[in-house]
Amino acid sequence: MTKSTVYRPLCIEDAVQLARNIEGVFSPTASLRCEEIGDGNLNLVFRVYEISKDTTDSALSPRRIIIKQALPYAKVVGESWPLTLDRARIESQALIAQGQLVPHLVPKVYLYNPDLALTVMEDLSDYTIMRAGLMQRNLYPLFAEHIAEFLAKTLFFSSDLGLNQQDKKRNVERFINPELCKITEDLIFDDPYTASPNNNCDAAIEDELKKLSQDCGLQFEVMLLREKFLTQAQALLHGDLHTGSIFITPESTKVIDPEFAYYGPMGFDIGAIIANLILNTISQEHWSADEETRRQYRAYLLQMVRDIWNQFESRFRSLWDNHVVDRMAQTDGYQDTYLTRVLQDSVGYAGCKMIRRIVGLAHVADIDSISDLHVRERAQRTALFIGKSLVNMNRRIQSIDEVITACEHGIAGVQA
Ligand SMILES: Nc1ncnc2c1ncn2[C@@H]1O[C@H](COP(=O)(O)OP(=O)(O)O)[C@@H](O)[C@H]1O
Ligand SMILES: CSC[C@H]1O[C@H](OP(=O)(O)O)[C@H](O)[C@@H]1O
């Protein structure tokens, strides 16, 4: 893979050929199989694996790789939505940067090919996408600890707290990601509050979309959060940290898909994961178990939200106490103020992300897969109610417990 190649979207045969040419992965005589498994909104994902008489199951084949290739447009919409191939560079560089800080929490990157806009990485097919795992009501006892470590280390060590300010600025430049940021700016901080053709809102809740476009107080808070997203180069974010970007088992967690990475406000990543856990909590209403079993799983998920924030905060404080590089950051009271602001931002962004997943372009399967239309409508209205509450209260929040209470009230109140 040294000579330069003209970009083209790979087909299955190309992917196999490319895999064969990567040194040290497959033997020259290996029988290889390949499938395109991409189920995301943007890219092609090929799994290439070796078959032998003992292993025919791709997930069990000891030799297997993933080739993720960017298309020159957004796959979910089609060629009418052109999109930079540079996102493959951003994704591979972000994975490598994260791998230096938390190697056990991201897939290994084997190769990045700029000409073909692709990254070859570790195949995690023996893990489950977390969204699917939560929809099956699996338990992940170590997740809060793992994601808190991911967040604390990646955010702290890429910020002016943990990184020399000159190096940080060079990093900001490397991760300028205007086109992918524009998607977020539109889909999260604009479209849900206007009659955008991008919106995708069930007819049953069109009244809610109208209310969003008329709610000036809410829009004011969204604008403040949008402003921070546009202007605050606080840390290198993953940029799209929802439960579909996390591979998981009860013992291990791997974060994938950082193509939206850029320097932005820390709360955007923390808010993303919180929002998606709350959306799943709300979706549990449709589960045909008895009320007590449902209540227990919802309580489990909300406790996970609490644990994520608390463990993030305690790890972040400890990194600060032991590794801060900015002398002035040791000023009395600054650490407390900083973390309160990160919490408030996280809550605001969580609310925005809940709203966009109900009325905006890209939804979540947790809610959309509810087949009973009345139950789905109730879940959507609950999600909007809680999302709006979080946005409205974000600048007053002092503790994660207020978020949990808002969720409990939202679920109990709207669905009563
Ligand atoms: N490293 C990996 N190992 C195994 N499967 C993967 C890997 N990366 C992606 N996939 C599969 O491809 C799907 C889409 O990947 P993702 O990175 O989310 O693409 P997109 O950027 O298009 O959203 C994932 O849901 C998962 O099923
Ligand atoms: C037109 S992109 C919509 C949506 O898709 C991205 O998610 P993913 O890459 O996980 O499929 C991102 O959340 C964007 O907002």
TrEMBL record:
Positions annotated to bind ATP: N43, K68, E122, D123, L124, D257, P258, E259
Residues annotated for substrate binding in this entry: D240, R356
Transmembrane segment boundaries: none
SUPFAM superfamilies linked: Protein kinase-like (PK-like)
InterPro entries with a match to the protein in the record: Aminoglycoside_PTrfase, Kinase-like_dom_sf, Methylthioribose_kinase
Molecular functions (GO terms): S-methyl-5-thioribose kinase activity
Pathway of action: Amino-acid biosynthesis; L-methionine biosynthesis via salvage pathway; S-methyl-5-thio-alpha-D-ribose 1-phosphate from S-methyl-5'-thioadenosine (hydrolase route): step 2/2
HAMAP family the record matches: Salvage_MtnK
Quaternary structure and partners: Homodimer.
Keyword field: Amino-acid biosynthesis, ATP-binding, Kinase, Methionine biosynthesis, Nucleotide-binding, Transferase
Reported function: Catalyzes the phosphorylation of methylthioribose into methylthioribose-1-phosphate.
PANTHER family: METHYLTHIORIBOSE KINASE
NCBIfam families: MTRK (TIGR01767)
Entry EC number(s): 2.7.1.100
Gene: mtnK
Name of the protein: Methylthioribose kinase
Superkingdom assignment: Bacteria
Catalytically driven reaction(s): 5-(methylsulfanyl)-D-ribose + ATP = 5-(methylsulfanyl)-alpha-D-ribose 1-phosphate + ADP + H(+)
Family recorded in the similarity comment: Belongs to the methylthioribose kinase family.
Pfam families linked: APH
Gene3D superfamilies in alphabetical order: 3.90.1200.10, Phosphorylase Kinase, domain 1
Annotated ranges, domain Aminoglycoside phosphotransferase: 94-277
